[in-house]
Amino acid sequence: MGRRSFGLLFLLVVLVAVCLASIAIGSKEIPLSGVWHGLFTPTGVEDDVVIRELRIPRTLLGVVVGIALGVGGALMQGHTRNPLADPGILGVTHGAALAVVLSIFLLGVSSLVGYIWFAFAGAMIASVLVFLLGSAGRGGPSPVTLALAGAAVSALMNGLVSAIVLLDQQSLDAFRFWQVGAIAGRDLTVLTQVAPFLFAGLVIAALNAPGLNAMSLGEDVAKSLGVNTSRTRSLGIFAITLLVGGAVAACGPIGFLGLVVPHVARAFTGPDYRWILPYSALLGAILILFADIVGRVVARPSEVEVGVMLALIGAPFFIFLVRRKKLVKI
After folding, report:
1. Residues 207-253: pLDDT tens digits?
2. Which of 85, 139, 162, 269 could serve as 275's disulfide partner, Cβ 3.0–4.6 Å?
3. CA-CA distance, 247 to 261, in Å (whole number)?
């Protein structure tokens, strides 16, 4: 077995261990016997309800969202050739935020399930707008034009969000709850709604990997190898939109994961995106669950949301990566 294959197997074992820890550890202490009882012989007692209705859906959602954000971050850094790019650079996060605020302000949507479709639609519209703006001109979309268009659209939408939440207290309160980024308080309904889009995004990402490898050698080299660079980049952007849009719709914006994880994956795999993507997927799931577990125990009986914990963990870790410059080269 090769080194990279062994690494994938090792990460899979770590992910299983972290999933079990996520089910067993929480702000409410449940003995291991109670965890076993809740998993395999439930009788409806309080501990069983906590295990089956709260922790298992939370763990499953964390795994799926971590995979989506890890792969989305790797694709984004590859297509923009920007080591500091995260999935939100296409305006996906701000588009989702604007749609959520508008749904509250104009339509009175108040439930988390109600936010999902508006957030996903906003993410899709924002990414399409960025892609159209970045594609304007004779040269078509390029890493520079996409980044500039994403920055402009994100700034515009962020300004609109700020204006609305300043005018309406209800929108501000609901938006603050969504904006923090969390996998807690979501049931399996949320997961089943976004899962088809995330699965489609992962399939497209896998198909996109060979073309992205060629494009990492340069546009001219990729074209000489017979790669349709415009189609490859379009597929990549579509995959990013599905993955990040679905994740943001379900959990709100979760920062740093999509930025840090691809760098760690690249340190083990090298520049081959056929390996970077699966490594990023597993590392993303592991990191989000680890941060969520830490957030449950550091402030008992309260919790610190995973979006906050990832910022606290991710910021110093990314500074370490930046100081080791070889890890940020793409």
Report:
1. 999 988 888 877 778 788 778 888 888 898 889 888 988 888 888 88
2. 269
3. 16
Find the angle CA(311)-CA(312)-CA(315) to the nearest 5 degrees.
65
Q: What is the DSSP string of 247-296?
A: HHHHH----SHHHHHHHHHHHHH-S-HHHHHHHHHHHHHHHHHHHHHHHH
d(CA 253, CA 94): 9
Neighbours of 49 (CB within 10 A): 13
Tens-place pLDDT, residues 170-202: 777 777 777 778 888 777 888 888 899 899 999
- Predicted TM-score (pTM) of the model is 0.88
36 and 23 Cβ atoms separated by less than 8 Å = no
**Residue 209 and residue 202 in contact, taking contact as beta carbons nearer than 8 Å:** no
Backbone angles phi, psi at 157, to 5 degrees: -70, -35
Q: Which helix (H) or strand (E) holds 113?
A: helix 112-135
Round to whole Å and give the CA distance between 330 and 328. Answer: 6
Q: How many CA atoms lie within 13 A of 168 on its CB side?
A: 17
The 3-state DSSP class for residue 91 equals: coil
Listed residue (244, 262, 323, 248) closest to 97, CA to CA: 248
Give the residue from 84, 71, 204, 234 showing the smallest Cα distance to 147: 84
How far is the C-alpha of 324 from the C-alpha of 319, rounded, in Å? 9
Count Cα atoms within 13 angstroms, Cβ side, for 263: 24
Amino acid at 313: I
Domain-wise residue ranges, the chain: 3-328
- Name the CA dihedral angle for 103, 105, 110, 114, rounded to a multiple of 10 degrees: 0
Say which residues have a Cβ less than 8 Å from residue 241's Cβ, sequence separation at least 6: 90, 92, 123, 124, 127, 128, 201
